Each structure stands twice: as structure tokens, then as C-alpha cells.
Amino acid sequence: MNVVVRILLNGLGLLAAALLLPGIHWSGGLGALLVAGMVVGVINLLVRPVVTVLSCPLIVLSLGLFYLVINGAMLVLADWLLDALRIDGFVWAILGGLFLALFNLVVRVLFASERDVPR
Prior knowledge:
By secondary structure, this protein is mostly helical. Helices cover 72% and strands 5% of the residues. The protein has five helices and two strands.
């Protein structure tokens, strides 16, 4: 998927999470939404893999449920970096991370090309 499209979809997912979850608040405009999409993309590209590898024993022990904590922590990091985003607590961050993961899954399924589908 194109990088610009991924940035837009990350920002759109963050906005949707803020609209649907009462513990996540968004106060920025369209430009801030694009910046937020870039920030979330960079966090998922650079920070999340390192945290996932370092917490591999916890992921195995929790049968994968620790991924929810990792997603929440990445959203808290985005909250810390972005002025337009505010999260009321870690539970809301975990729910927001779960929402963003499901949002990205739905987007990938909807926009999957034929070359992405295994034969």
C-alpha cells in the first residue's frame, strides 16, 4: 500500500477512535491529523518491533494478550508526542490500540489486491 495512503488511514483510524471511544480525545485539524498519521506510522515502524521482541516471553506467557498492552503503550507514546491527542488512561489506550488494530485489519482486507492474496 502506498505510504501516503497509509499515513491518511492511520490518521483516519485515530480520528475514528477518538469519535467512538469516550476516553480518547482529538482536538486538531486536518494538518494535525496528517502529522498524527505519520507519528503513528513511525512508532509502528520503529518502536513497536523492538518492544515486541523484548517482550516476547510475556507475549508467549499471556498467549498473545500482551499485544494489547503493547498496542496501548504505542498509543500512549503517540499521546505523549502529539499535542492534539489526549488519552484519559491506560485502559483507554489499550481499547484504542485494539480499535486501531481492528481498523487496520479491516482496511487491509478491503483494499487487498490480488497479488496480496495467497494462492
